[in-house]
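can u do me a favor
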């Protein structure tokens, strides 16, 4: 049994050094004080309960790990909480003079995370090129799905390569070849990005199975479908059935064991970080064919949305994929942000990418 003095010294060390170690993870001073206080109280409780438990160190370890991780993990539920500020450009004349401008160019679109207390406490931030290079260094990223997924891939590459870089010019051309796959290696950071044209859920399913066969898994998979199925199959219960199949394949095929990182550390949980690109709001009157207007009605959209929820593929329903809530982004950006009622301004997909990266930071237990 430890003496009272030993215990006191141990407690003092914890209160002092644990928050200092955390400060190394870029916690603000207020947070540090908060953690010091929380630890102090936890330790005081521990000391009083010690006689009832076999070992002080077990309790201390469990208390500190709970304090550290609980806070950020719950932030996954808040990461999609963003608000939009869309207003007319101050100088429409200059837009008009610029050739090839569309309606989208007449609106300035800004977005940020909601300023509620809970969301603020999560300290989400838009990542710059260097943050992303750091985070995705050496990673294999796969974006798979329909045209929405393609726009997400474009936004991610914009961020990694820089939107005015020469490289981006050729990316834009190659990525938008109709209905085809695309692959690029960003040498500077050893990141590989694959875009896989996979307009149906079955295509996504096949992709997951193929990784299993190769025994080689990407680090990040961002996928999303729905619109093709809605237009060409138009059967929400079939959509739900396909999603359940995809979900169960993801659950059974993608390994859960900790995986060694390049840096030497290991990450617990699923070794692949998985995201689902939600369906955009469809503005029926703006859809560009009669077939679309008829098949992609609000009623059908809601049936598809319900099937997505019931498929339990999303984390919020207990499934494996974290939602990038395109529905909320497109609804809040509004009709000013789309030309065809289906594909939206790049600002929407940029937001989705920043949401994904913030979730990835939390999931991989990293901070900037
Ligand atoms: C717009 O197009 C016209 C003729 O096509 C050209 O003379 C002019 O330089 C272009 N302006 C800009 C800003 O690109
Ligand atoms: C990427 O990681 C490698 C190896 O860990 C390191 O040498 C390199 O500087 C990193 N590059 C960037 C851009 O962070
Ligand atoms: C819709 O899909 C379900 C499940 O695949 C199937 O049982 C049903 O017959 C389909 N409905 C129609 C109208 O095709």
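np, heres the sequence
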């Amino acid at each position: 049994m430890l003496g009272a003095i030993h215990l006191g010294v141990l407690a003092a060390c914890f209160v002092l050094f644990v928050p200092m170690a955390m400060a190394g993870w870029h916690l603000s001073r207020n947070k540090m004080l908060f953690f010091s206080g929380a630890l102090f109280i936890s330790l005081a409780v521990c000391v009083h309960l010690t006689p009832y438990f076999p070992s002080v160190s077990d309790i201390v370890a469990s208390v500190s790990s709970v304090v550290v991780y609980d806070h950020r993990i719950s932030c996954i539920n808040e990461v999609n909480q963003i608000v939009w500020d869309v207003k007319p450009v101050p100088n429409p004349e200059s837009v008009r003079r610029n050739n090839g401008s569309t309606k989208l160019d007449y609106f300035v679109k800004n977005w940020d995370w909601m300023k509620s207390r809970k969301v603020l406490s999560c300290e989400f931030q838009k990542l710059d090129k260097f943050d992303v290079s750091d985070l995705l260094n050496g990673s294999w990223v796969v974006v798979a799905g329909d045209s929405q997924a393609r726009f997400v891939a474009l936004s991610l590459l914009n961020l990694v390569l820089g939107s005015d870089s020469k490289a981006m010019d050729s990316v834009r051309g190659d990525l938008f070849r109709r209905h085809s796959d695309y692959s690029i290696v960003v040498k500077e950071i050893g990141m590989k990005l694959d875009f896989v044209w996979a307009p149906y859920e079955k295509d996504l399913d096949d992709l997951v199975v193929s990784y299993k066969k190769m025994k080689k898994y990407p680090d990040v998979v961002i996928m999303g479908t729905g619109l093709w199925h809605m237009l060409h199959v138009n059967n929400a219960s079939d959509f739900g059935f396909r999603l359940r199949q995809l979900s169960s394949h993801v659950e059974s095929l993608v390994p859960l064991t900790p995986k060694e990182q390049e840096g030497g550390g290991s990450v617990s949980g699923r070794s692949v970080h998985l995201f689902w690109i939600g369906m955009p709001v469809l503005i029926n009157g703006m859809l560009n064919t009669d077939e679309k207007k008829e098949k992609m009605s609000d009623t059908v959209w809601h049936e598809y949305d319900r099937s997505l929820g019931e498929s339990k593929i999303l984390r919020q329903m207990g499934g494996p994929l974290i939602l990038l809530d395109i529905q909320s982004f497109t609804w809040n950006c509004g009709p000013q942000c789309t030309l065809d009622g289906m594909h939206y301004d790049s600002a929407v997909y940029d937001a989705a990418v920043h949401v994904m990266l913030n979730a990835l930071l939390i999931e991989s237990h990293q901070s900037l």
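Confidence is low (pLDDT under 50) at residues 259-268. hope that helps!!
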